[in-house]
Amino acid sequence: MAGAPLKPLFTHGSREEAADRPLAAEMAVAISYGGSTHAVMMATPEDLIDFAYGFSLTEGIIRDAREIEAVDVVAFDKGIDVQITLQADRSEALAARRRSMAGPVGCGLCGLESIDAAVRDVPKIAAPEFRLQVDEVDAAVEALSRAQPLFAATRAVHGAGFYRPGDGMLAVREDVGRHNALDKLIGALAREDIDAGAGAIVVSSRLSVEMVQKAAIAGSPVLIAISAPTALAVETAEAAGVTLIATARGDGFSVYTGADRIVAAGSDEG
């Protein structure tokens, strides 16, 4: 509501320090192609060009970052419109996809494609030689925690990072939405031409099936989370060949799929 206070009206007990924290930004962000709105999400208004690329990739609108010709971020009073210009063939493919749907595109889970979109097939990850040491899993989780300035300030956003053995945490993106944070990360990797197949994606949230789908589309062989997975997330990871690591909080973790990629500390396997 307009004019609402940005600090608590009342604080009880030892909550004064938390009450002084800034609040996380959240606003409506539209993703548009060729002047037509495709989706509107509540998101943190940071790294929106990365968001445009990552969303386009994980939704199957593009297959490669080079298929986007331009991204313009246009601010309005009530939100932001991220206007994406595609190469001609991808623009035509998207138009045909829209015509095949019975309802409005909206969130991407509407009309005739809703069930298929929710449980869509994902690429099979090969990466037979990729290995991650046990201590590197813990190091990746710790590195993500250290590289989240918005979370440190607000305690109200999710993070997604890319960890490459030998190089550490190469990129981190944050957002009030866990899916948005992961899309932003995937977009950043694509724009920087960083091979997601050479490292692990680490997220600060639970593992739902959508998170596994996005990681598989990005090509990452390992997905690490600090919280637990859903049953469908585990099934999807198994089918996609993704190593799924959960409840990783720096003091241990559980491996649900692809355990052959996780080796003892100091091992020279692979």
From TrEMBL:
Gene3D superfamilies associated with the record: 3.10.20.10, Cytidine Deaminase, domain 2
Keyword Cytoplasm present in the record's keywords: the answer is yes
Identification of the protein by name: Sulfur carrier protein FdhD
- The gene designation is fdhD
Cite the NCBIfam families for this sequence.
fdhD_narQ
GO cellular component terms, A-Z: cytoplasm
Q: Which family, according to UniProt?
A: Belongs to the FdhD family.
The species this protein was found in: Martelella mediterranea DSM 17316
- Please state the span of the N-terminal signal peptide per the UniProt entry: none
Any GO MF annotation of the entry: sulfur carrier activity
